[in-house]
Amino acid sequence: MSTLEIRDLHVEVETESGPKEILRGVDLTVNSNETHAIMGPNGSGKSTLAYSIAGHPKYTVTKGQVLLDGEDVLEMAVDERARAGLFLAMQYPVEVPGVSMSNFLRSAATATRGEAPKVRHWVKEVKGAMSDLEIDPAFAERSVNEGFSGGEKKRHEVLQMSLLKPKIAILDETDSGLDVDALRVVSKGVNEYKAQSDVGVLLITHYTRILRYIAPDRVHVFVNGRVAASGGPELADELEENGYERFLGAKEEQPA
Amino acid sequence: MSEPVAQVGGGIIDAPDSPVLDVDPGINATSPKIAPWELRFTSYDVEAFEVPRGREEQWRFTPLRRLRGLHDGSATAAGRIGVSVASGFGDAASSDLGGVRHETVGRDDPRLGDGGVPADRVAAQAWSAAREAHVVTVNEARSDDEPLTVTVTGPGEGQSAYAHLQLRLEHHAEAVVVLDHRGSGTVAANTEFVVADGAKLTVVEVHDWADDAVYVGAQHLSVGRDATIRHTSVTLGGDLVRLSPVVNYRAPGGDVELDGLYFADGGQHFEQRLLVDHSVPNCRSRVTYKGALQGVDGGTAAHTVWVGDVLIRKAAEGTDTYELNRNLLLTDNARADSVPNLEIETGEIVGAGHASATGRFDDEQLFYLMARGIPEAQARRLVVRGFFGEVIQKVRVPALRDRLEAAIEAELEAIGS
To answer: By the CB < 8 Å criterion, does B169 face chain A?
Structure first.
């Protein structure tokens, strides 16, 4: 059993006009075998939350805590967080020219597992995982994400998740830019990993569409840098119906 | 060589109305107002060149103080370079050269100059002052598995020498050659690559000098009808290395690829000045040079210079050319100058383009790899290896490829991150 605890998290970024606070006290707990959806309008800070947990240098934590099974994640370097069992499927995966996908995957698996996977098992494992995500085997020899379409990049993010086997996976707008077929394949990949592991999932999305494929246990509405409301799956239905207006209105009544 | 030959090439060059240009200006990309070939002058006679003062376009990036007198005649070249030729590379090398001929000839050998004519004072100095020249001739199609290794060894610390080497491929000959420079001392050199009609030369020129070495070399590439040259230039070691390859097409159908890789540490000055002179129709050229730099805090900066001149003369219809230079700054205290120049006198071409970019190590790439658990030092190695990958993969001698990869790893270990 694993638990990711986010307590009163405040994060700011450097802008031309000085530091700007994006996250203003986020409280959230994700346990193994739970799927939490975080929904919110553009600019509400959803992606900042994802990248802050992963440790992107652009974001500065000014207050609060992030704990993975009681360990202080904020004290860890980016690679240590990944090896501790955190995974971030990125909205915009980065191209790394000249580094083949197969070399990259093997390096990452070696690092997170603590030893190099046995070649024969590894080749089989990668082939199987690629096939599940309907990825052409030829991608293994291509440079990481280079020239991939949006859908291909997202499939490879889920591929990495299934190979690196994290305790907690944060999926940052994994549904954005996907057509229905790609969304189905990617969702299937996430559901398969959920079924064969105890992973806790934090699913960040703008739209309810992906929730038809990946069923959340909890839904959180994210507005203005914090969780404005939490509920069961029915909250997603209400957002589908009425949008974020109710929560945006409520924000203005709060002191800034 | 009967008498000194002087020629002035070029003239004022106007670009045509509709060249195919694909320009990707980098951080340090600048274009000088006067194209260098307007003033391009060539001669075998050292006295035909003024002593450079440092302001000349040709010399403006070079720290003349560090040339140890190669440029002004004050160097006393009492030393000797060593030249040895072997069949095979590394452990597999053998002195049985088969049909390959290695001769040591006098300055008056009529074949000298077939590659090209010196275009700067140091090259002319080396031309007139070298005691002898080494000519290596291939007149057969050799297998790719049997590279020739030509090892050039410096004269030793505190010594200076002038060198002249000519590599000749006769009609329809084929060879893979490793031209391996190492050792200490100060060297000015002319290296001629004379590739006859239909011949095919694949050459990897490695400059892996000791820390004290200064090497200033002119590479003269002569490309016959339908001849092919794949020239890869690798610069890893030396205090100052300045290379000036010039491609001279002698007849239509020539096909040349110039690849380069350089890795400069703190205090090192590595300079590459290329000229691809498209003077005849239907020739092709591709230039791909990649450099990495890492300075040391507080020391002299690591400095690299890449000047890529491509000239498409009026007669050179059907030219197809593209040149690219990329530089990766791994640390502060490093400076990469990158100057692509493309001058086109005819619009009747297949294509012409250039790209130049100099950037810092990409933190987003580093974050992405580390976010997958890969430790920082390993992530950096992956990115740099990937950056050089397209050049290294083209090196057709596996044992050399391994050596170059190991050398790059060793360079990266030095920053200790």
So the answer is: no
What domain range is B11 assigned to?
A: 4-361
Q: Which of B362, B372, B387 sits opposite A108 (nearest CB)?
A: B372
Amino acid at A105: L
The pLDDT value recorded for residue A250 is: 52
Q: Is B190 helix (H, G, I), strand (E, B) or coil?
A: strand
Taking CA atoms, what residue in B is nearest to A99? B386
pLDDT of the residue at B415: 62
Report for B5-9, B140-144, B200-204: range of highest mean pLDDT? B200-204
Q: Do B66 and B147 share a structural domain?
A: yes
Claim to verify: residue B308 and residue B383 sit in the same structural domain:
no
Q: Does B186 share its domain with B242? A: yes
**Is the confidence at residue B246, as pLDDT, over 50?**
yes
What residues contact residue B383 under an 8 Å CB cut-off, 6+ apart? A96, A99, B361, B362, B365, B366, B369
- Residues B39, B69, single domain; the answer is yes
Domain identity same for B292 and B413: no
> Which ranges in A114-201 belong to alpha helices (H)?
119-132, 150-164, 180-196
pLDDT exceeds 90 at position B297: no
Domain boundary among the residues B361, B388, B407 is at B361
Contact call for residues A145 and A96 (beta carbons, < 8 A): yes
* A79/B364 touch (CB, cutoff 8 Å), yes or no: no
pTM score? 0.82
CB of B417 less than 8 A from some CB of A: no
User: Which chain B residue shows the shortest CA-CA distance from A50?
Assistant: B371
Q: Which residues of A touch B370 (CB under 8 A)?
A: 77-79, 82
ipTM: 0.95
B24 and B110 part of one domain: yes
Q: What is the mean pLDDT of residues A101-122?
A: 95
A78 interface with B at CB cutoff 8 Å:
yes
B357 touches chain A (CB under 8 A): no
Q: Where are the alpha helices (DSSP H) in B285-357?
A: none
pLDDT at position B27 over 50: no
Query: Does B253 share its domain with B313?
Result: yes
> Does one domain contain both B328 and B369?
no
Handedness of CA A180, A182, A185, A186 (dihedral sign): negative
pLDDT in tens, B325-347: 999 999 889 999 999 999 999 99
Q: Which of A78, A99, A160 has the CB atom closest to B386's CB atom?
A: A99
The domain boundary residue, chosen from B316, B332, B361 = B361
